Automatic annotation (TrEMBL):
Entry annotated with the keyword Signal: yes
Keyword Signal among record annotations: yes
Keywords: Signal
SUPFAM superfamilies, A to Z: Purple acid phosphatase, N-terminal domain
Domain of life: Eukaryota
GO terms of molecular function: acid phosphatase activity; metal ion binding
Cleaved signal peptide residues: 1-30
InterPro entries, per database record: Purple_acid_Pase-like_N
Name of the featured protein: Purple acid phosphatase N-terminal domain-containing protein
Length: 104
């Protein structure tokens, strides 16, 4: 029958080494895995009048949808009229268009 592990002459020196040297390093090791980005607190709410037609978007959201694609979504007041968002890669040069018609 084998002796229990704590009766091994190397057990306690190894335990002390782990306790005093490896365990204190663990938080610093995991800290390197955290993101460097820190989200800023939300800013003031800006209320701006919407002076265009109800089919014009009030908010437009552009987000990445995969490696080579974008997802465009928007919010309008009007529900019975087609709405469109024109967009492009260069400011002021809108070569693409997203169109939505909910219909009734």
């Amino acid at each position: 029958m084998e002796n229990p592990i704590w009766q091994n002459p190397h057990f306690f020196p190894l335990l002390l080494t782990c306790t005093f040297f490896l365990f204190p390093l663990q938080p610093s090791l995991s800290a390197g895995l955290q993101d460097d980005y820190i989200r800023q607190p939300p800013g003031k709410v800006v209320v701006a009048p919407h002076l265009r037609s109800k089919s014009d978007p009030q908010q437009v959201h552009a987000s990445l949808a995969g490696k080579e694609y974008m997802r465009i979504s928007w919010v309008t007041d009007e529900k019975d009229v087609a709405s469109k968002v024109e967009y492009g890669k260069v400011s002021g040069k809108y070569e693409a268009m997203a169109l939505f018609w909910l219909g009734s």
